[in-house]
């Protein structure tokens, strides 16, 4: 055997469940959420489930599916999913989008107590080769059209009455086309 068997947990299936619905809801775990250091195999079925379980949970459990204890991150998280069903945490004091002008103070997250380092990625056991996708190529003329269209849309930011918002939009405009910013 490559690895010795190590007992990690004891499952007791002889207990009667007090609240079947609550226990069943806690079983909505997702293979797309893994701890650092664990990587996926190249199994096509597993690769499909990594995406589809998250998508199914978003559909069935709602936008707050990451608040379930089995899916929840173990650190503070801020997202814009405050409303909707299965909301376990009621955060009324926050604005539900970030960054916001209405936020009184910038939310600073605490540093973790343990020094977490990114684990080294293991070398793949086999190298899969597949043909490169060529459907994403766009001719330079089409790229220029998209850039010009985006620059024109963001160029209307001069009509925005709030100066910090105007500055923010002009930065986006500069990224798209530096010649158009005046």
From TrEMBL:
GO terms for cellular component: peroxisome; plasma membrane. Residues 17-102 form the Catalase core domain. Its EC number is 1.11.1.6. One of its GO terms (biological process) is response to hydrogen peroxide. SUPFAM superfamilies: Heme-dependent catalase-like. Keywords: Oxidoreductase, Peroxidase. It is an enzyme of class 1 (oxidoreductase). InterPro entries: Catalase, Catalase_core, Catalase_haem_BS, Catalase_sf. It comes from the Eukaryota. The keyword Protein transport does not apply. It holds the Pfam family Catalase. GO terms for molecular function: catalase activity; heme binding. This is Catalase.
